[in-house]
Amino acid sequence: MVKVVKLGIKRPVMGPLLPDPEKREVKYTFVSSDDHLLEPPHTFEGRMPRKFEDQAPRVIETEEGHQVWMFEDTPYFQIGFMCVAGRAKEDFRMEPSRYEEVRAGCYDIDERIKDMDLGGIWASVNFPSGVTGFAGHLFSEAKDQELGLACVRAWNDWLFEEWHGAYPDRIIPLGITLLSDPEQGAAEIRRNAARGFTAVTLPEQPHRLGLPPIFNDYWDPIIRACAETGTVLNLHVGAAGFVPLPPEAPQLELGATMFEALALSACAEWLWSTYPAKYPDLKIAMSEGGIGWVAMLMDRLDNIMSRSGYGQGWPDSKNSPSDVLRRNFWFTALEDKSTIGTRYRIGVENILFESDYPHGDGTWPDTQEVMEDVLGDLPVEEIRMISHENAAHLYRHPLPKVCLP
Asked: At what angle are helices 294-306 and 259-272 packed, to 10 degrees?
């Protein structure tokens, strides 16, 4: 590690990682539609064009002992971004600042598979965390846009070759793309789809990151590329930032409480962007958004189309907004025990489940127990759909020869 100037940010005092948990009994074949990874320090090594080798993102060490990603002379304190799995609950409010302070399953694929086996996770969609930003948007903000595109491509190469390639039946390949140039972004989606990627992530509310709003045809090349290649568009709640909070509010507590409100607003925006109506084959997954608000949104949509008359701008004369919501959107449950009863209104085929490893909201290693609590009383065919069949169909991902229940 190369020492840099003192940044004046004190390292948190954290306890040691807990011992490995006991392996959980597998009652359900489970495909998690939302988990996260932490890029290892070597992510970009050997994957950048020669002229950018010295400018690639790299992990450096500060005088205070933080390990941080450095990109274009800017430090990003995201080494352990919410990677709290395997830590004591009292440490959940503090971000790990070094790789040895997080479980190796966050950044080492062999260890990740071991953790998946411990928690009963057959396959997993993994979102970026470190220098990329949640939706890979930081590379799109690069001062040198050619460098930014090179980083996007290198990250995707690492994900496909090392993370997915080592265990192709266990990791669903989700990529990032360039957001600052939609034509190049679309080309990257097509490049990835041609070699087996089935998903890409974008910020759920791009206008909050200084990009054009989703209502602008700026996004048309990227959306068209997703629709034409069958690439699932994953909109992770919080990728564009958390809900604006009033002054003096308890930031963590209120921000976490309002998380699903972000999913509601983002989903409504994407629906009324008319992209789902324009591209019937477009597939959108609302990642970590929950399902508690979906039936309510459908009721409201039906109201404004029939009673109030506020929906006259809807462009599809054959399919209502709620019809398109059921055709084009999928929703991920983390727990949602009190609202699983709305599944017929939502569409059982539209509901996915997640573990959110290794974040504080996550259910690992007790995911199987949580699933039993939420889904255990449902008909077997519905349990199978929500636990693994819907996700396998959406992401075109293989399942084991024998599935439970």
From this structure: 40
